[in-house]
Amino acid sequence: MTAAAPGSVPFALSFDRDANLLVAGAAGVASSYTVHRDGTLTAISTAVPNGQSATCWTVFARGHLYAANAGSATITGYTDHHGKLALREPTGVAAHTDTGPVDLAASGDDKYLYQLATGAGVIDEYRIGQNGSLSLIGTVTGLGIDNGHGTEGIAAT
User: Fold this and answer.
1) Which of 14, 73, 92, 114 could form a disulfide with 60 if both were Cys (CB 3.0 to 4.6 A apart)?
2) What is the mean pLDDT of residues 47-68?
């Protein structure tokens, strides 16, 4: 990446419906960029803070960027209007998770979000509302708690 947000380590990359690059920074920020044909980037939103700790994996669904915050056990929701990012909730917390949220995936119809919490050995299941809100609808248990050899990665269709 040639145009990282100041003071942030890029961690996860997603694209929105307009093909803008959405970047989560480990310091609890998200940024967005227009990707030009020559591969250069132009910032749209730079380092929008979420007030959470250890922001990592992201997924784009229903016009929102969702970011797992491993250090806070939360998910942050950002609204996305043609690449312009803003917090969905002023607190930066769209949902609380089980311990150690690391990976996110959305269903193909954008109605459900799945979050792998390796610290608890579970997958939390959320319904994504029309407005982008998250409602916990279930938890899959029994995956084993991550002790350095735990489950990594999640995908949904």
Assistant:
1) 14
2) 94
